[in-house]
């Protein structure tokens, strides 16, 4: 009991009181790893990752055959469509003998999907199902990266189909390369040597882990709608890949050693095991994404789960500061701000800045470009934007026909004070434009 109390005291208090910057590199990495582990467990206990994993299981069941049908068509165009079955068998190996049964069923469904039989409407529905799966995957990864903005429709089609079309080719290339090297004469001769043979045998045992880690790294870099550093993605993918392979081995052992428990579900046993493994796989993938996020942003490692909410005055000042920063670049004819760049320069997290930017775009004070990632420019010349328009857009956010000032019961005293305050503020702010605010810099902005 005493040891348990000491562990709890360290995890909940001591671990978060240490300044990592005061430590040497390896102890600092150790503290970082412990903090990330604590945060992952906290997020899992909160339940949101579990809910998203379960949601992805449902979507996967609906979209799996259409997704594989598209991949099958791509591989068939290169004459290597027969490689789809070994890939599926490898992914479902934790199901044991039932993995082969599921693979046969899925391959049978995929081979029956023919464009001529589907027709134009059926083909559109097939593609829509595939896009809906990838979109839900993106939203789940955006959640782990605390990104509220999804891709535009054009980027969805281009990015998603890049994954759907290129992904199978990369997997086939990796498997083919591995098979070619393993069957080469040089490789066979090297296996006969004592030490080198042991190294090659060890490499063959590690190869499945390496292929999974590379695949997860590719997913972590490409899917979230934010810039993910390769190093961060690799860290998350290494943990997730190790968990996926290890848990898969344990799951296979459990299935093979529990025939009586499986017999209870009778004909539903295969489907039941398949759903469980899908859930475990998605959960591990999301955990790896969370690890990559906390690794990339050590400043987000908070002991308590914090709901980031801005005060009204902070929202107003943030809107003014944002418009001034964007206006300066507009006058200086520099490259426009992106959301991550702007958030970093203002020392605020993207999650808090995003609603402010969305509101300014809705009020047509800003324009969001179609770049990747989107950039922001003034919606009209700064000389035509007064500060009242900026503050007013933020103050009136979320008002609608159901919730507005007109629905409040009249009170003469309150109304008089509020109107005086409103008029004084509007009179002061409407006399100053964004241009005049920027022109107070040392360098006068040029006329545009």
Automatic annotation (TrEMBL):
Source species, domain of life: Bacteria
Membrane topology of this protein: Multi-pass membrane protein
Record-level GO cellular component terms: plasma membrane
Gene3D superfamilies, sorted: Winged helix-like DNA-binding domain superfamily/Winged helix DNA-binding domain
UniProt entry keywords in alphabetical sequence: Cell membrane, Membrane, Transmembrane, Transmembrane helix
Localization: Cell membrane
Transmembrane stretches, start-end: 56-75, 115-133, 160-186, 206-223, 230-252, 264-295
Pfam families: Virul_fac_BrkB
NCBIfam families: yihY_not_rbn (TIGR00765)
Protein name as catalogued: Membrane protein
Lineage summary: Bacteria, Pseudomonadati, Pseudomonadota, Gammaproteobacteria, Thiohalomonadales
């Amino acid at each position: 009991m005493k040891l348990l109390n000491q562990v709890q005291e360290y995890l909940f208090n001591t671990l978060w009181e240490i300044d990592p910057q005061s430590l040497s590199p390896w102890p600092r990495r150790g503290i970082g790893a412990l903090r990330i582990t604590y945060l992952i467990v906290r997020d899992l206990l909160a339940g949101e990752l579990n809910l998203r994993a379960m949601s992805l299981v449902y979507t996967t069941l609906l979209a799996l055959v259409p997704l594989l049908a598209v991949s099958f068509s791509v591989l068939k165009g290169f004459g290597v469509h027969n490689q789809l079955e070994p890939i599926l068998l490898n992914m479902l190996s934790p199901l044991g003998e039932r993995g082969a049964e599921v693979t046969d069923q899925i391959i049978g469904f995929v081979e029956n999907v023919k464009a001529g039989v589907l027709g134009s409407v059926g083909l559109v529905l097939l593609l829509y199902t595939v896009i809906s799966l990838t979109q839900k995957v993106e939203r789940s990864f955006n959640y782990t990266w605390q990104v509220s903005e999804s891709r535009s429709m054009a980027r969805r089609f281009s990015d998603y189909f890049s994954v759907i079309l290129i992904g199978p080719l990369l997997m086939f290339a990796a498997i083919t390369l591995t098979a070619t090297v393993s069957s080469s004469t040089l490789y066979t001769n090297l296996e006969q040597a004592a030490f080198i043979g042991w190294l090659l045998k060890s490499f063959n045992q590690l190869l499945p882990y390496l292929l999974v880690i590379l695949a997860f790294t590719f997913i972590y870099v490409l899917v979230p709608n934010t810039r993910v550093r390769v190093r961060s993605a690799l860290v998350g993918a290494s943990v997730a890949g190790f968990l996926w392979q290890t848990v898969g081995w344990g799951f296979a052992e459990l299935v093979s050693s529990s025939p009586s428990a499986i017999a209870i579900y009778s004909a539903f046993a295969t489907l039941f095991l398949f759903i469980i493994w899908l859930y475990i796989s998605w959960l591990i993938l999301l955990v790896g994404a969370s690890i990559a996020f906390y690794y990339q942003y050590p400043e987000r490692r908070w002991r308590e789960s914090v709901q980031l909410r801005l005060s009204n005055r902070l929202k107003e000042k943030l809107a003014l500061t944002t418009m001034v920063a964007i206006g300066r670049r507009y006058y200086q004819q520099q490259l426009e701000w992106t959301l991550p760049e702007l958030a970093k320069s203002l020392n605020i997290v993207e999650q808090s800045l995003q609603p402010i930017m969305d509101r300014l775009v809705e009020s047509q004070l800003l324009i969001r470009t179609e770049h990747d990632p989107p950039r922001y420019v003034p919606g009209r010349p700064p000389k035509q934007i007064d500060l009242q328009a900026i503050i007013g857009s933020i103050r009136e956010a979320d008002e609608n026909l159901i919730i507005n000032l007109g629905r409040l019961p009249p009170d003469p005293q309150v109304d008089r004070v509020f109107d005086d305050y409103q008029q004084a503020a509007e009179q002061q702010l409407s006399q100053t434009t964004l241009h005049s605010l920027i022109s107070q810099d040392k360098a006068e902005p040029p006329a545009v």
